[in-house]
């Protein structure tokens, strides 16, 4: 872990790795917080049967796999903090429909599809696919920002997944144990939107210095 | 002689432990059917051992559990329901009895777990009929769809809570509003719920927010459960309740339901923290509150 940081620092400006790791942690946290709240959001229309969770997990896995693909692809051309920050801003924007239009959309799906399995799959796709694709783009792109030498690429990637997955674990735990007890679902989503937007603005404003 | 004593001891210990007639894992729970002390019980989450969901006496029509008997107090608000909705099948004891009492009424039963339907039919003598059908569905989905079809019920029984896990989307203000919209003008909602933990306050506040005053039925010395009886229209006065109870009591006596005793136990006075936060689709940590 120390090695990774040292290697990154030596390679580039000392502030970059801590920033990227903090941001990757936040994206990991947000992904799982939203996934967990997904069950809450769908339950009034599609219940909380096992297939509702099946739909949610499927959509998140598909979205992340697409995000990894796209993020890796985008990292080929002039990678930089500016674009990295724009991923965060976009993910914040993509979460907005959940609070602003979620109920109206789910009602339409509920009326159109009688089978709650496909209803929940369609609703989960409509609400969660896009923001999760964007959040998934962050991981490979972070690796690209940090790696300077091929021999360290595995180590950097390993440490990055360590940090972002730890963020996911904390996002899951905090949301399911405490946040839902204290706050409304929408309040939690708004907070995540604000958090991701701040991450984006931070990365963009620091792009000249790091 | 020794053999006889041995046999007797074995029989006694078997009777005390109970005999597991059937066991299966479903998508939602571990289901066991256990026989002990002359009754057969449906048990969820077998490890705890004390989570009897439904019990039936093997040689009697009487209802085993006080809270199941208390459910029938709902009839005091509508003694002749024609359309009935039951959420949560269990062993099927309540729908079967309602079908017996009101053979002409149509009865919709909603149960989330297909394995429970199978077990109720195989081990608890539950039978569907032309006017009593079970739908395997999440209750929230069923209720919302029934609302779209503008269905109405004179009696809705909500028995989907088993202590271990509470379906949180069936405790919110929005859900209760959907249920209320399904009640006919003389319709009654009866919910079997909890009386301990912090959840009691939140749940009471939520029912009150949707229905206004409701009849709260608790027998703390007898059972930890409480039964909420809420109505679409205004609540009948105590005299009317008592008169209806006297009239209906003989029909329910064969099942061990002391209906005439019930009106005196029904109250509308809030005995909960009235500042408790109302549960909504946005705020529904029922399982967390249940542990506090």
From TrEMBL, chain B:
For this protein, the record's CDD domains field holds: AdoMet_MTases
Q: What InterPro entries is this protein classified in? A: PABS, SAM-dependent_MTases_sf, Spermi_synthase
Q: Would you say which domain of life the source belongs to?
A: Bacteria
Q: Which reaction does it catalyse?
A: S-adenosyl 3-(methylsulfanyl)propylamine + putrescine = S-methyl-5'-thioadenosine + spermidine + H(+)
The EC number on file is 2.5.1.16
Annotated ranges, domain PABS: 4-243
Q: Annotated pathway, please?
A: Amine and polyamine biosynthesis; spermidine biosynthesis; spermidine from putrescine: step 1/1
Cite the binding residues for S-methyl-5'-thioadenosine: 29, 111, 138-139
- Example of a GO biological process term: spermidine biosynthetic process
Against Pfam families, the record matches this protein to: Spermine_synth (PF01564)
A single GO molecular function term of this UniProt record: thermospermine synthase activity
According to its UniProt entry, the function of this protein is described as: Catalyzes the irreversible transfer of a propylamine group from the amino donor S-adenosylmethioninamine (decarboxy-AdoMet) to putrescine (1,4-diaminobutane) to yield spermidine.
* Subunit comment: Homodimer or homotetramer.
Q: What is this protein called?
A: Polyamine aminopropyltransferase
Q: Which organism is it from?
A: Gallaecimonas xiamenensis 3-C-1
């Amino acid at each position: 872990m120390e090695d990774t940081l040292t290697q990154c620092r030596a390679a580039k400006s000392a502030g970059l790795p801590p920033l990227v790791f903090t941001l990757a942690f936040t994206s990991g946290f947000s992904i799982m917080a939203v996934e967990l709240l997904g069950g809450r959001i769908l339950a009034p229309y599609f219940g909380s049967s096992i297939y509702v969770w099946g739909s949610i997990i499927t959509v998140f896995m598909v979205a992340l796999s697409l995000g990894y693909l796209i993020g890796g692809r985008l990292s080929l051309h002039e990678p930089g903090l500016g674009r990295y920050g724009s991923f965060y801003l976009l993910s914040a924007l993509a979460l907005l429909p959940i609070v602003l239009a979620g109920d109206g959309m789910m009602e339409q799906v509920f009326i159109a599809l009688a089978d709650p399995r496909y209803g929940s799959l369609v609703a989960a796709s409509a609400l969660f696919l896009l923001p999760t694709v964007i959040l998934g783009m962050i991981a490979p792109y972070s690796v690209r920002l940090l790696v300077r030498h091929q021999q360290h690429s595995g180590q950097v990637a390993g440490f990055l997944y360590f940090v972002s997955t730890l963020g996911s674990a904390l996002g899951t735990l905090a949301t399911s144990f405490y946040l839902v007890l204290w706050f409304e679902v929408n309040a939690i989503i708004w907070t995540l939107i604000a958090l991701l937007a701040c991450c984006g603005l931070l990365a963009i404003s620091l792009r000249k210095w790091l | 002689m020794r053999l006889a004593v041995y046999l007797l001891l074995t029989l006694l210990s078997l009777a005390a432990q109970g005999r597991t007639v059937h066991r299966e894992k479903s998508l939602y729970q571990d289901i066991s059917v256990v026989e002990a002390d002359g009754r057969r019980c449906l048990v969820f989450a077998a490890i705890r051992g004390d989570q009897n969901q439904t019990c039936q006496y093997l040689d009697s029509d009487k209802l085993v559990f006080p809270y199941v008997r208390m459910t029938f107090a709902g009839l005091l608000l509508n003694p002749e329901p024609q359309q009935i909705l039951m959420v949560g099948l269990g062993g099927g004891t309540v729908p079967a009895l309602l079908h017996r009492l009101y053979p002409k009424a149509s009865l919709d039963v909603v149960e989330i777990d297909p394995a429970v339907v199978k077990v109720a039919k195989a081990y608890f003598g539950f039978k569907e009929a032309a006017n009593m059908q079970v739908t395997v569905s999440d209750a929230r989905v069923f209720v919302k769809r029934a609302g779209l079809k503008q269905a109405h019920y004179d009696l809705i029984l909500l028995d989907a809570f088993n202590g271990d896990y509470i379906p949180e989307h069936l405790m919110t203000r929005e859900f209760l509003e959907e249920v209320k919209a399904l009640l006919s003008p003389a319709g009654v909602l009866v919910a079997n719920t909890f009386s301990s933990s912090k959840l009691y306050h939140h749940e009471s506040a939520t029912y009150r927010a949707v229905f206004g005053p409701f009849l709260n039925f608790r027998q703390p010395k007898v059972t930890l459960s409480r039964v909420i009886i809420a109505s679409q229209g205004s609540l009948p006065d105590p005299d009317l309740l008592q008169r209806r109870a006297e009239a209906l009591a003989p029909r329910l006596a064969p099942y061990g339901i002391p209906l005439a005793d019930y009106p005196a136990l029904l109250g509308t006075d809030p005995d909960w923290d009235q500042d408790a936060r109302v549960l909504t689709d946005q705020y529904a940590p029922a399982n967390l509150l249940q542990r506090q």
